[in-house]
Amino acid sequence: MEKFETTIDTLCNKKSGSDAHGFIDFITEDELRNYIETLKPKGIKKRPMYLSFDRLNMMIMTIFKYFESELQITKNKAD
User: Fold this and answer.
1) Which residues does 43 contact at the CB level (< 8 Å), separation at least 6?
2) Between 23 and 50, whose confidence is greater?
3) Residue-range domain boundaries for the chain
């Protein structure tokens, strides 16, 4: 858990900005595969702080939208 918290703190550093690419790399590592495979499809009302597949999907889709906007900005600068 300490390693996880340290990694997340590094990726979400407020001073240097968040690292979206690093976050995606982190959650796709083999180390987290077993945990992600056991996520429940939907959140539990009694325990809203638990991560579910839906909540993980919302986070990842937001990051992909960010990647899309970065790509659009890059394309616009190239034109």
Assistant:
1) 50, 52, 54, 55
2) 23
3) 2-78
Rg (CA), the chain: 15
Euclidean distance between CA atoms 34 and 32, whole angstroms = 6
Q: How far apart are CA 22 and CA 7, in angstroms?
A: 10
* CA separation for the pair 38, 77 (Å, rounded): 42
- Contact status, residue 39 vs residue 51, Cβ threshold 8 Å: yes
- pLDDT (0 to 100) of residue 49: 66
Segment 25-39, tens digit of pLDDT: 888 888 888 888 888
In which band, very low, low, confident or very high, does the pLDDT at 59 lie, cut at 50, 70 and 90? confident
Helix axes 20-27, 30-37, angle to 10 degrees: 70
C-alpha to C-alpha distance for 4 and 20, rounded to whole angstroms: 16
